[in-house]
Q: What sequence folds into this?
């Protein structure tokens, strides 16, 4: 059923259904509340209100199903989904309370039964309206909060890092020399990328890329693409080399050194570093995106994954490109990490 609610015209159906539901559900609920307190309007508007409540149930179901389909593609905003799951049965309850109140007003039942039904319907209206607002707010927050709060770009540190050795990556001064749309370098997650050829083709517009030229674009990139594998892959094709200041990488403290002991601290699926062929990679955002399953990445967290990676992907360019997007830098010293033991199925393939 999720496929039916997945896309329309190549675009996700969820924004359409959720906006329709977020408008009609509170409007029909408020119309019911008005009819509870304004009896003279009931004859003219009650059937229309009951019809709107029925349509609201269908829209809340469509929003729920399309939301699950979208979550399967881009990830699950937990709070928004939990509230959306509550809204569907809540809209059903409101419909039946409204229908019961409507039928009671058409009978000769004692006045107190009509008043009781009206009171219950009013309470349900308040609950559903509040829930609708919370669902809408949580959805907007999941979509926009990180993008609005994150700065477009941070200025690069100009003071030299006393812990950096000579030749340890591309300097901030060098990156700042490439600060125009015709010559655009930017730092993202501790690596320097030449975005010049990408400016005119960026789907979000050239202005978004121009804003991070010659600067640290880590926050801007993460706010827009956090956890998405494809943008990371696209970015890896534009790699120039590692940035020479740890401040450009939010995964490193200014004095952090990429030793085996440091890698061991990042050994879970929520904080996953691994060493592959002498380079350290932060694979945290890729765990859930890995085509072969999260378990295969979890197995190399905090370990030396060189043999596991080479055994599965030796000589393949695409996995190499994907991996490059998560590079932190070379491992300091000789690896003392345990070697990851990974059992790949034959059909697993990046």
A:
């Amino acid at each position: 059923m999720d496929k039916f609610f997945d896309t329309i015209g190549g675009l996700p159906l969820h924004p359409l259904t959720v906006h329709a539901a977020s408008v009609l559900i509170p409007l029909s609920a408020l119309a019911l509340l008005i009819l509870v307190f304004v009896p003279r309007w009931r004859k003219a508007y009650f059937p229309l209100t009951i019809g709107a409540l029925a349509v609201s149930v269908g829209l809340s179901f469509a929003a729920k199903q399309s939301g699950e389909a979208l979550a399967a593609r881009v990830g699950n905003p937990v709070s928004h989904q939990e509230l959306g799951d509550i809204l569907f049965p809540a809209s059903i309850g409101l419909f039946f309370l409204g229908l019961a109140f409507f039928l009671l007003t058409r009978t000769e039942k004692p006045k107190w039964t009509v008043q009781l039904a009206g009171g219950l319907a009013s309470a349900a209206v308040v609950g559903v309206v509040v829930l609708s607002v919370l669902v809408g707010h949580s959805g907007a927050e999941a979509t926009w909060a990180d993008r609005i709060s994150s700065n477009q770009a941070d200025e690069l540190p100009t003071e030299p890092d006393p812990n950096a050795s000579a030749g340890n990556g591309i300097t901030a001064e060098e990156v700042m020399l490439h600060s125009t749309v015709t010559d655009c370098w930017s730092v993202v997650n501790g690596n320097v990328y030449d975005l010049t050829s990408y400016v005119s083709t960026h789907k979000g517009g050239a202005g978004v890329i121009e804003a991070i030229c010659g600067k640290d674009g880590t926050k801007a990139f993460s706010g827009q693409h956090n956890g998405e594998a494809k943008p990371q892959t696209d970015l890896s094709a534009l790699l120039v080399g590692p940035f020479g200041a740890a401040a450009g990488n939010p995964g490193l403290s200014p004095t952090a050194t990429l030793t085996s002991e440091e890698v061991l601290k990042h050994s879970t699926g929520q904080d996953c570093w691994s060493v592959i062929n002498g380079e350290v990679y932060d694979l945290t955002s890729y765990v859930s995106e890995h085509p072969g399953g999260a378990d295969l990445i979890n197995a190399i967290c905090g370990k030396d994954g060189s043999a596991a990676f080479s055994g599965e992907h030796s000589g393949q360019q695409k996995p190499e490109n994907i991996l490059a997007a998560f590079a932190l830098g070379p491992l300091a010293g000789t690896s003392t990490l345990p070697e990851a033991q990974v059992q790949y199925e034959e059909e697993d393939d990046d």
In short: Residues 7-149 form one domain. The first strand starts at residue 7 and ends at 8. Residues 37 and 79 are 34 Å apart (CA to CA). Residues 111-149 form the longest helix (39 residues).
